[in-house]
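Key result, reporting period 2: structure in, sequence out.
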């Protein structure tokens, strides 16, 4: 019986010591948490990384893909004393965007504490289809403020410039606006247009008057055919509160996160047949040409420069080919200028190409450079022809050009040996 009591007593001590060890282990914690584990595609959620009752340094985040950090880290710390017992917490907060549907795992974060590397827990996140209920849409009587992605046309050709606007609609005062994430532009080249000069105006939606303002603008250039989703985007708004305590210098605000709509955008191929002088220009274009010398001897280079300006995709537009009379050898044209600039609500391009043509026979030639592009207004190809250049080629004698019985000094074209 004594042996039984001794065994039972020893077991109690073992359990109590085990509990003590567990409690001791729980005094210090390093963990991750989130405000929700099921999220709609395009929504944002909060990731907190927390240190409890411990000091740490060199915080290393796990690979957060396919989530995107749109804000953070913001740090906070707190200390509490209850019944003389002190405890402290330090946290790092990130706002993440769920940009892709699926089930994902956020791996462990690590931190250095007391010379050791400590790992946190992992998190499982389920990203469902795009939410419709949380997107503030026009006509929703409960929406005093919302944002929308807007296009003039939801269809375009490869290489066609399309303007995407993010428009703020509001019936109240907005103190500040912060874009948390840009749309995903897979399949497009995008360029932000920062100089937005659109004036605010009012619109009536289902009997309610809203002030509208374009707050972001992008020029999009489709690179390949297909149907794409643009958006949604998330924005933080600081909305003025009329609580009787505001003044001319200070106004109370509340923060609200709003999510835009999603647009479907279809990109199609250009029609066939394609002119020989077409090199990818879609939109409106002009062309100017110049010739540096029209009287040359056999073997001397004739230089023609061509300047193309328009609102197409400068990455696609190349030097066009044009017909040459027999008796000329043409080198590959070189690019001498490549510029893009903003004008109004569009991005314009300016390219200059230089052609070197070398005659092999003496004669009088006519050369007419051309440039073809796809005109959106008529939905057809148009060809611009420059004024024709007349080139006189004669035989050279001892570096002299003989013409009408007279001799003139000329510089011969030399090429590296």
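The corresponding designed sequence is given below.
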């Amino acid at each position: 019986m004594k042996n039984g009591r001794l065994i039972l007593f020893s077991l109690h001590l073992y359990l109590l010591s085990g509990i003590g060890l567990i409690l001791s282990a729980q005094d210090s914690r390093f963990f991750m948490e989130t405000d929700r584990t099921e999220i709609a595609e395009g929504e944002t959620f909060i990731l907190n990384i927390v240190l409890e009752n411990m000091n740490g340094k060199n915080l290393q985040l796990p690979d957060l893909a396919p989530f995107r950090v749109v804000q953070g880290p913001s740090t906070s710390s707190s200390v509490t004393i209850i019944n003389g017992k002190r405890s402290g917490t330090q946290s790092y907060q990130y706002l993440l965007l769920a940009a892709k549907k699926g089930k994902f795992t956020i791996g462990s974060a690590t931190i250095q504490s007391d010379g050791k590397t400590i790992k946190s827990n992992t998190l499982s996140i389920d990203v469902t289809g795009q939410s419709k209920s949380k997107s503030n849409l026009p006509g929703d009587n409960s929406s005093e403020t919302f944002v929308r992605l807007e296009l003039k046309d939801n269809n375009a050709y490869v290489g066609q410039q399309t303007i995407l606007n993010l428009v703020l609609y509001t019936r109240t005062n907005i103190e500040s606006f912060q874009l948390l994430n840009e749309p995903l532009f897979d399949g497009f080249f995008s360029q932000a247009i920062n100089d937005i000069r659109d004036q605010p105006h009012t619109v009536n939606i289902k009997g309610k008057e809203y002030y509208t303002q374009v707050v972001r603008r992008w020029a999009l250039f489709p690179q390949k055919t297909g149907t794409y989703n643009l958006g949604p985007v998330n924005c933080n708004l600081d909305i003025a509160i009329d609580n009787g305590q505001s003044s001319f210098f200070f106004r109370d605000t509340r923060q609200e996160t709003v999510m835009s709509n999603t647009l479907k955008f279809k990109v199609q191929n250009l029609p066939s047949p394609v002119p020989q002088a077409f090199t990818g220009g879609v939109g409106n274009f002009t062309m100017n040409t110049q010739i540096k010398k029209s009287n040359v001897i056999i073997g001397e280079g004739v230089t023609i420069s061509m300047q193309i300006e328009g609102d197409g995709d400068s990455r696609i537009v190349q030097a066009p080919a044009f017909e040459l009379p027999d008796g000329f050898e043409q080198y590959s044209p070189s690019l001498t200028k490549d510029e893009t600039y903003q004008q109004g609500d569009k991005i314009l391009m300016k390219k200059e190409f230089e052609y070197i043509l070398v005659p092999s026979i003496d004669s009088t030639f006519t050369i007419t450079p051309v440039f073809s592009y796809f005109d959106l207004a008529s939905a057809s190809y148009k060809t611009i022809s420059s004024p024709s250049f007349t080139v006189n080629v004669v035989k050279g004698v001892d570096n002299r050009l003989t013409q009408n019985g007279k001799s003139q000094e000329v510089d011969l074209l030399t090429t590296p040996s």
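The chain has a mean pLDDT of 84. DSSP finds one helix and 35 strands in the chain. This case is discussed further under Risks and Mitigation.
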